[in-house]
From TrEMBL:
Function: Condensation of UDP-2,3-diacylglucosamine and 2,3-diacylglucosamine-1-phosphate to form lipid A disaccharide, a precursor of lipid A, a phosphorylated glycolipid that anchors the lipopolysaccharide to the outer membrane of the cell.
Group of enzyme by EC: transferase
Cross-referenced NCBIfam families: lpxB (TIGR00215)
Gene3D superfamilies reported for this sequence: Glycogen Phosphorylase B
Annotated protein name in UniProt: Lipid-A-disaccharide synthase
Biological-process GO terms, alphabetical: lipid A biosynthetic process
Family in the record: Belongs to the LpxB family.
Keywords assigned by UniProt, alphabetized: Glycosyltransferase, Lipid A biosynthesis, Lipid biosynthesis, Lipid metabolism, Transferase
Catalytic activity: a lipid X + a UDP-2-N,3-O-bis[(3R)-3-hydroxyacyl]-alpha-D-glucosamine = a lipid A disaccharide + UDP + H(+)
Highest taxon of the lineage: Bacteria
Length: 385
């Protein structure tokens, strides 16, 4: 009998990650069937989409509260199907706020529940790991330092590497990226990435534009690239350009193309998040910045116990790249930090070497390793059945 596997993936990134996992499991179990909440990439691998993953894409606490009732209804309906069908396993891909509840009830019903992409237990104080321990049969970790945390807490965990490390080349071709973007080979290029969310762009656009204005005075031939993910974020950045009276700056806004922009750049100014990891895998010098509400920032700092917020520094366990956050994120300090990278070839080369080591560490063929970690749970469920 073909094993059936229930899955939930949240947003586009989860859809991509889950599609690779489905393909890897099918190499071992060609007859396996998959269903639940997913997206078009999962569907292309034969996944039975009962609800589209876009339904799980919430933006901030207010949006989450507004949609709580509908999301809760969907989750309960899916749980009822799982309890009726009794699949070989449930796999929650990211979306921990949605998935951990499901995983706990699936586990209580005697079926394996696997969480793919560990929540950021290493970033915050508190007992979240206790809830994870109650809810899951196994956690699949993208970062090597996560597994020892779970081991210490008695939670089964497997380190599977980061999928971006499999996709990105070990030696990015900056010349080819500049050619694709029609950029001169010799002029300094600075990529500005104020974030993918509207709230991030609102908080950072003015500061990033003022930083670009300072750098343009120091480097009159500099070009600034601003990749933006949506029409809404592009409109917000355009509004900020007019507000700062900076429409004459040599700024090129791009629809997407963030990876090309970072690859082509000499230095990247980036909001903290996954983009900072992308910049590290692209071996780019960077300055990390972030700005949120005053009280939200105080709460975050009270909860955090690591000295860094940027993934490159966290993964390398040292202050490799500057982090200028909140009140420290002034145009002058950001411009000075970027200028440091532009003027120190030795520091840039040392950073390339450290980021290359990190890339090798994270490049594990994530989908294959994840499938290898999941397969024993499927086999055990088959024996039990």
């Amino acid at each position: 009998m073909a094993p059936r596997i229930a899955m939930v993936a949240g947003e586009a990134s989860g859809d991509l990650l889950a599609s690779h996992l489905i393909r890897a499991i099918r190499k071992r179990l060609p007859e396996a069937e998959f269903y639940g909440i997913g997206g078009p990439k999962m569907q292309a691998e034969g996944f039975d989409v009962r609800w589209p993953c876009e339904l799980l894409a919430v933006h901030g606490y207010v949006d989450a509260l507004k949609r709580y009732r509908s999301l809760s209804s969907i989750r309960k309906q899916l749980l009822a199907q799982i309890l009726r069908d009794r699949p070989a396993a449930f796999i929650g891909v990211d979306a921990p706020d949605f998935n951990l509840w499901l995983e706990g009830r699936v586990k209580d019903a005697g079926m394996p529940s696997i969480h793919f992409v560990s929540p950021s237990i290493w970033a915050w104080r508190g007992g979240r790991i206790k809830n994870i321990a109650r809810s899951v049969s196994r956690v699949l970790c993208l970062f090597p330092f996560e597994k020892p945390i779970y081991d210490k807490a008695g939670v089964a965990a497997s380190y599977v590497g980061h999928p971006l490390a499999d996709v990105f080349p070990l030696q990015p071709d900056r010349a080819a990226a500049r050619e694709r973007l029609d950029l001169p080979a010799q002029r300094p290029v600075i990529a500005l990435l104020p974030g993918s969310r509207q709230s991030e762009v609102r908080n950072l656009a003015d500061t990033f534009i003022d930083t670009a204005a300072l750098l343009a005075q120091r480097h009159p031939d500099a070009i600034f690239l601003v990749p933006l993910a949506t029409r809404e974020t592009r409109a917000l950045f355009e509004e900020a350009l007019h507000r700062r009276q900076a429409t004459e700056l040599p700024i090129r806004m791009l629809f997407g193309h963030a990876v090309d922009a970072m690859t082509a750049a000499d230095v990247v100014l980036v909001a903290s998040g996954t983009a900072s990891l992308e910049a590290a895998l692209l071996k780019r010098p960077m300055v990390i910045s972030y700005r949120i509400g005053k009280w939200q920032y105080r709460l975050m700092m009270r909860m955090a116990y690591l000295p860094w917020v940027g993934l490159p520094n966290i993964l390398c366990n040292e202050s490799l790249v500057p982090e200028l956050l909140q009140d420290e994120a002034t145009p002058l300090k950001l411009a000075d930090a970027i200028d440091h990278w532009l003027g120190d070839a030795g520091a840039r080369q040392r950073l390339v070497e450290r980021f290359t080591d990190l890339h090798h560490q994270l490049r594990q063929d994530t989908a294959t390793k994840a499938a290898d970690a999941i397969l024993p749970h499927l086999q055990a469920a088959h024996v039990t059945a």
